[in-house]
Amino acid sequence: MILLPAxxxxxxxLTQAYNQTRTDYLIPMPMNPDRLNEYxxxxxxxxxxxxxxxxxxxxxxxxxxxxxPGQGWITRLGVLPEGxxxxxxxxxxxxxxxxxALTDVxxxxxEVIKNNQPALELFRRHQFQPTRELIIxxxxxxxxxxxxALLAARKIYYLQHEEVIDLHCAHRERMNWLNAVDSMRNxxxxxxxxxxxxxxxxxxxxxxxxxxxxxxxxxxxSRGWVTYLATTLELKRIAVEVTSGAPVVVTACLLELLHxxxxxxxxxxxxxxxxxxxxxxQRAGYFEVFRRIEMVRPAEASDYPGSFAA
Length: 310
Ligand SMILES: CC(C)(COP(=O)(O)OP(=O)(O)OC[C@H]1O[C@@H](n2cnc3c(N)ncnc32)[C@H](O)[C@@H]1OP(=O)(O)O)[C@@H](O)C(=O)NCCC(=O)NCCS
Prior knowledge:
Blueprint: E1 2-5, H1 11-21, H2 33-42, E2 51-55, E3 58-68, E4 71-79, H3 88-101, E5 107-113, H4 117-125, E6 129-139, H5 148-152, E7 153-159, H6 161-170, H7 181-197, E8 211-218, E9 223-230, E10 234-244, H8 247-261, E11 266-273, H9 276-283, E12 287-297
Parallel strand pairs: 4-5, 10-11
Antiparallel strand pairs: 1-2, 2-3, 3-4, 5-12, 6-11, 6-12, 7-8, 8-9, 9-10
The structure holds coenzyme A.
């Protein structure tokens, strides 16, 4: 078995390999090349430092590394079912950690689906420690709406992409990799890459990927915002911040207002913490689909060649 940079392979080959490693996965999440490309762009996946495991001519596994200043992120790690338990997953993980250690990365993050025991075992053995549980939830469109949120709102400000980015920059909470400000900024890179590839031809400007948001002041002095990416069928990248007032009630009101504005779309939230805002999401009609465990391998766990900067 040899490990090669993922950049030696085409998106089609990587997609096919990824899907083959996930044929028996707990939650089916097949990819196509466009979605993988979007994933790579949004989450700063670095293909030259990502690895493909090859035996003869056959890809038997792959693992990807995302990079942001000071931080790494391991994702899409998988081995073909028939190649497991032979050290391939561990070898790829180690190679990704070594790649991370070559630059200024001082901590490496990842998420694993709760109850994925093989992966949890593998990551624990490599000194990853769980930090928190994250929830993936959905909300189908609903016919009826609660008027209370509308009545409670005193002022609603409608935000454009750059205003949304400014809010996320000022946000002090530690966000998971998927919802960090870099992922939000990369929505513009996504629009640019669509335009460059010609796949945006014929798409009206307002339908190019961009973030939107509403910032709401309520009569009782509560305040908060919700930001999101709206497509024709779905609301994605939803983030809520309550700057003043009761987190459960304000979150539920913000979401009610959002869903009045976009009544026809399904909504998906990914990797949100199990805090009071999650109770607000539930009040607004969201239900849990599954959970992930976020894990980190801090600098002091270093036992790989190359050193992590402090
Ligand atoms: C998780 C996965 C990548 C592990 O790959 P692998 O090649 O089988 O892993 P390795 O052979 O290197 O195993 C290394 C260690 O991980 C742990 N481990 C791996 N599979 C395990 C299992 N089924 N049960 C318990 N521990 C397991 C063991 O500690 C193992 O060491 P050991 O064999 O000496 O006991 C593989 O099971 C897989 O592709 N699963 C589906 C995709 C997936 O879940 N990816 C992770 C998403 S976050």
